[in-house]
Specification:
This protein is an alpha/beta fold. Helix content is 42%, strand content 12%. Strand 7, helix 6 and strand 8 form a beta-alpha-beta unit. The protein starts with 8 loop residues before the first strand and ends in a 6-residue tail after the last helix. 48% of the residues are buried.
């Protein structure tokens, strides 16, 4: 491999120094085949691309680059992955407000129909005033309003954890009341989502218990009561033992989708107790590697599966390091480095959520994980990110 000036980087180090870094060779991965894996359901939570040239305040008036955003969904579908729309990775609960999310869901649903791609979409209660208390009846109505939009678009709702409900509920029975109403009205099986406090501190005590281990039985009982209306539940607790315990408790036919971006290879591979399917933010960033690993799992080639996934885990753990909710910035940086968007700008200016040291280490780990599709292009795109932070480049 020829080393050019554009291929070299000066990356800052934690001790205050700078090191010369030259990324390795491009990954040797199969071209996208468009076929979903046979042995697991695999869904990537997709990010949105901001429009950097939109007028107005980017925080008060966030604007989406629709062409680039929808193109990224086609990229994910081309690798056989499903797309989870308008969820955490898309900055839901942050700069992605319900009016924007509604349009995003409808546009993505049209794209999904055109290419035959799987689409699930987040339903929550963010059309309610975030500062005002809400009754359980108002919360259930807000959920139902969004579920109707998603179902009418032809997608599957993912009933996400509600900050309003976390604030209003007094105990597990209040959660049950709301979810009984929402699930009872579903016209098709929906997915549930258990997002832990590590991702969103406002969800502390969800399901009526501060310790998630104390809430598992209540969650499993609710799912059992509505098993015919629940496709599965995405578990984002970053606790593999609790996820396995929940898998043991849900009825047969209800899937558990891992949202554990720390332990996903082992949870998806499974063991004598079973396995998890996947709905992961990290799959947005590592789609080609994930597709190849899942294809190896389909063929029973566990050695190849581990070989592909193992180096992505340090990258994922870095991207999702505390504060975990800032992980979206790393996901979007990788999309920029891999040429899927022309800039590193995010809704609400969230690209500033991580330090340049964090981004420098992300680049190293992405290179080692073989997720930089064109390392020379990635290095050339990383240069201005570093230069804007005052790190002079060779």
């Amino acid at each position: 491999m020829t080393t050019t000036a554009a291929h070299q980087l000066a990356l800052p180090t934690a001790d205050g120094g700078v090191e010369r870094y030259v990324p390795g060779a491009a990954p040797d991965l199969p071209a996208p085949a468009g076929e979903p894996p046979r042995s697991r359901v695999a869904i990537a939570a997709a990010h949105v691309v901001a429009d950097p040239l939109a007028p107005g305040d980017p925080v008060a008036e966030p604007a989406i680059d629709w062409e680039a955003t929808l193109a990224y969904r086609r990229h994910l579908w081309s690798y056989g992955l499903g797309v989870a729309e308008a969820m955490d990775t898309a900055q839901r609960g942050g700069a992605l407000t319900w009016p924007l999310a509604k349009e995003l869901i409808q546009r993505s649903a049209a794209e999904a129909k055109a290419v035959g791609g799987q689409l699930v979409c987040g339903a929550v209660t963010d059309q309610l005033d975030p500062a005002a208390p809400a009754t359980l009846e108002e919360i259930a109505a807000a959920y139902l309003e969004q579920c109707v939009v998603i179902e009418e678009a032809g997608a599957t709702p993912v009933v996400m954890c509600s900050r309003h409900l976390a604030r209003a509920a007094r105990d597990a029975d209040d959660y049950r009341r709301v979810y009984d109403e929402v699930l009872g009205a579903a016209s098709r099986p929906v997915m549930l989502h258990w997002l832990g406090e590590v991702f969103d501190p406002a969800l502390r005590g969800y399901w009526g218990a501060v310790d998630p281990a104390e809430a598992i039985d209540a969650v499993a009982e609710m799912i059992t009561a509505h098993a015919e209306r629940v496709d599965g539940i995405k578990v984002s607790l970053l606790d593999d033992a609790l996820e396995r315990e929940l898998r043991d408790k849900v009825p047969d036919g209800v899937r558990v989708y891992t949202g554990d971006d720390f332990n996903y290879p082992a949870l998806i591979r499974g063991d004598e107790r079973g396995y998890s399917h996947a709905l992961l933010g990290i799959f947005d960033a590592i789609a080609p590697v994930a597709a190849a690993a899942l294809a190896a799992l389909d063929e029973g080639d566990l050695e190849r599966y581990e070989e592909l996934f193992a180096p992505t885990v340090p990258l994922a753990r870095h991207i999702f390091t505390a504060p975990t909710g800032s992980y979206k910035a790393g996901v979007v940086l990788l999309a920029y480095l891999n040429g899927h968007q022309s800039h590193f700008r995010m809704l609400g200016g969230m690209e500033s959520a991580r330090s340049v040291l964090h981004y420098a280490e992300l680049f190293r780990l992405a290179d080692r994980a073989r997720v930089l599709a064109d390392p020379e292009r990635a290095a050339a795109r990383m240069r201005p990110v570093l230069e804007l932070a005052g790190v002079e480049q060779p």
